[in-house]
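Morning run. Coffee first, then this:
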Amino acid sequence: MRRLLGAAGQPSIRLRLTLWYGALFLLAGTVLLALNFALVARNFPSGGEDLRDALEERLDLRAGDLQGDFTFLVQREPARGRQGVFQTVRASTLFDTIVAGIKEDTLREILWRSSIALGVMAVASVGLGWFVAGRMLRPVHEIADTARRITDERLEERIDLAGPPDELKDLADQFDAMLDRLQTAFEAQREFVANASHELRTPLAIIRTEIDVTLDEPDAGREQLEATAEVVRRAIERTEGLIDRLLVLARAEGPLQLVEEADLADAVRRTLDARSADIAELALDVTLDLAGAPVEGDRMLLDRLAGNLVDNAVDHNEREGWIEITTSRDGDIVTLRCANGGPLIPAEEAPRLFERFARLERARTVGRGGHGLGLSIVRAIVRAHRGTVTVEALAGGGLAVEVSLPRSQSTDAP
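And here it is:
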């Protein structure tokens, strides 16, 4: 019964396909029978002339011997005890009657036997259609069974359908590819939650420790309370910064909510102005080559893209180091390149900086530890805007990040 009815009590696809096979075969057979019947009826001898020719050939007569109007003596059925009664029948009438009778009997026999054959074949076609539909739908059942077994804890299941490269094979391959993406996304989500929990646990532990130490000191003075409050404040600011970055990352990994024009060169200038005190404190040498770089997209995310690159160049630099930032356009592509000095980074480890919460201890300046989300946010924003981003560890130390985005079709920015 499960094969006949679907999950909602409706006829299953296999049953519907079988019925369609049978109906189409019955329709095609009926049309063929009607066409055959019409052709036989049309080409059957229609009068006595054809029968005359057939009789002449049968009786080995010369052509034309049976021409003309003559009569036959036909013995009638006995009636009222009278035997041997004959009736004269004209040849033309007799021949027409014989031809009509033969034609009627022949067409009736064709119709009867063809109808029986059509009925038998219709029943056979239903059975054959049921078998063929089952074979054709077997990959669909395999896909459904695999999907039924999959849970968030069992994403390793795959269909791995064998067979010719047809539509069902392509469907199964696409389903396996989707499962690969889902498994990657779930693993990244688990890793993200674990790392975020670890990052949030650190400032919370600092806050709890400071409060506990202060409460254990009944004679704590104002200076100790202020020191505790300052530590708690910094821990809260770090937590707020982490939460803010997590929210930006979540927004960047979703669809664009707002599309408007933004200029990456202006975003770089605003961020440099905001970090001017830190740049002066580290005595960094900043070199700019900022051409107009208008881009259509989410303005907040594009500002954060430029801001994260500048922040990364400042926070992971060395005292009296350098920063070089350029923006350029080449056709429909806008490029932002941010390079900075700093500790030496192994070339093979540079791409790992795009991972969430990734930190290279040798590439960090003492006292300027970040959250490990800066370049992850950059990559997510670039992907959301259908661009590309590359990172390169410089031979003399430091890092260079280059972003390419489709530019807007607006006029050049001043």
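The longest strand covers residues 322-330. Good start to the day.
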